[in-house]
Amino acid sequence: MAYLVSEGDNVPFFIHYPFKMIAEQIHELIKVYLADKDLFLVDIKVTPGKITVLVDKPAGITIDECVSLILYLYKEMDSSGVFVNKEFEVGSPGMDQPLKVLGQYKRRIGRPVKILLKDGKQHAGILVDVNEQELQLLETIKEKIAGKKVEKQITTTMPMQNIKETKLEFK
């Protein structure tokens, strides 16, 4: 979850505190709202002028579902004054944004992805499987066998803790 004002802003710590509280309040309300739905929370961003809530679901979220969530949050938090002088947005993360939560990874099984590891190594392939601990990626590698380049597919298992960023690959 993102609670900071924004990266690079030189804002004293005490300014960040209210934003973290707001994000935590919204997070608790969203947990209640999502309890009986097929949706999952991706991120909450609170900045001085904007609150952004990103949600998704395995089949893809609809505009009506985003509207329902925003109306619920307005109803629950309207008296707090949180939304005064702030833009408020509920939506799904863009296709070009990095995957952040397990639900996003599961939704992308069978799709081509690019993975950047924390050590700087990069991998690309088809996302085969994923759980909280690791993911499996089907990679196509080129080898020289008897003087000829041959493509070979291998399945690589990567611990989730070693992954810095995963993005969908568009070919």
List keywords for this structure.
single chain; alpha+beta; five-stranded antiparallel sheet; 25% helix
Q: What would you say this structure looks like, in words?
A:
- The chain is α+β, with helices and mostly antiparallel strands.
- 25% of the residues lie in helices and 38% in strands.
- It contains three helices and eight strands.
- Strands 7-6-5-4-8 form a five-stranded antiparallel sheet. The protein has a three-stranded mixed sheet with strand order 1-2-3.
- Strand 4 and strand 5 form a beta hairpin.
- Helix 1 packs across helix 2.
- The longest helix has 22 residues.
- The chain is elongated and about 75 Å long.
- The N terminus is likely disordered.
Please outline the helices and strands.
Blueprint: H1 13-34, E1 40-47, E2 50-56, H2 63-77, E3 87-91, H3 102-107, E4 112-117, E5 122-130, E6 134-145, E7 148-159, E8 163-168
Parallel strand pairs: 2-3
Antiparallel strand pairs: 1-2, 4-5, 4-8, 5-6, 6-7
Helix pairs in contact: 1-2
Strand content is: 35-45%
Query: Order of strands across the biggest sheet?
Result: 7-6-5-4-8
In terms of quaternary structure, what is this? single chain
Query: Could you tell me how far the N terminus lies from the C terminus, measured between alpha carbons in angstroms?
Result: 30 Å
Characterize the largest beta sheet: strand count, sense, and whether it forms a barrel: 5 strands, antiparallel
Query: How many individual helices?
Result: 3
Task: List the secondary-structure elements in sequence, H or E.
Answer: HEEHEHEEEEE
Radius of gyration: 20 Å
Quickly give the structural class: alpha+beta
In the predicted model, the low-confidence regions spanning at least 5 consecutive residues are 1-16
Query: How many β-strand runs?
Result: 8
Mean pLDDT level = 86
Mass-distribution shape? elongated
Please estimate the helix content: 25-40%
